[in-house]
Amino acid sequence: MTPVNTKHYLHDDVIRKLTELKLAELSDYVDELCADPECVNLDFIGKFEVITNRLYQNRINELINNLLKNATLREPQAAIAGLYYESERMLSRELMIELGTCDFIRSQTNIIIEGPTGAGKTYIACALAKAAVGKCYRVKYIRLPDLQQELEDCYHYNRSLKNLKQKYIRPALLVIDEWMLRASSDSLSSFLLDVMEGRYTTSSTIFCTQSKQESWHAMLGGNTMAEAIIDRIVQNSLTITLGNLNMRSLRNPLMKYKNVKE
């Protein structure tokens, strides 16, 4: 469409009513449509469809922007198209394209991304999370150490534990980064059990971890509560195990310069 024309084709009273209905942008769309020579010969239905499609796309874009902001992704620029598939990385292009459709969310499948530090676990998780946002899913990213701090603050300041649980139960996709980086406290394990129970069979969670799954039981307390948490995670899950390729070094422009000099 052509740039916005300063002339208003609708009467001021109609514009006022659209504003009250929270549809003020429709006035601009009408102005653009009427000023566009390519749309002059459209009948009423054709013009109405153009304006409706424009309004719908604008609202969807606003929703996606808000969802992305609320997701608090650590790497909001991450994208499936930007993934690196060097053989040493042991990452399947076909699998990532499939996961990018977000069917795993519809089937309530959890994803466990294992790999050493620098392997790009967070980027992959954020790329999948951003794909989910693009399909209008509610997403939330959190580092487990930050979640533990939130829980401690909740107890310290006598805040609602129920609200904190709902914050992490509601999202269609939850990304927990730095999972089991260190042993969990009893209070955190109890909280995680409630969250995993609330999300079980209703939503999906991505876990980014350096720790092998065999070690989780001991790190979660080595008791029946640990077994219950793990059971709710792994029963319907997919594990992606990354190789030793250090993506931080690969993406570091100084390292590239060093390689050229050598």
TrEMBL record:
One of the record's GO molecular function terms: ATP binding
Occurrences of domain AAA+ ATPase (ranges): 107-241
UniProt xrefs under InterPro entries: AAA+_ATPase, DNAC/IstB-like, IstB_ATP-bd, P-loop_NTPase
GO terms classed as biological process: DNA replication
Keyword Nucleotide-binding included in the entry's annotation: yes
Keyword Membrane: no
Keywords attached to this entry: ATP-binding, Nucleotide-binding
Protein name (Swiss-Prot/TrEMBL): IstB-like ATP-binding protein
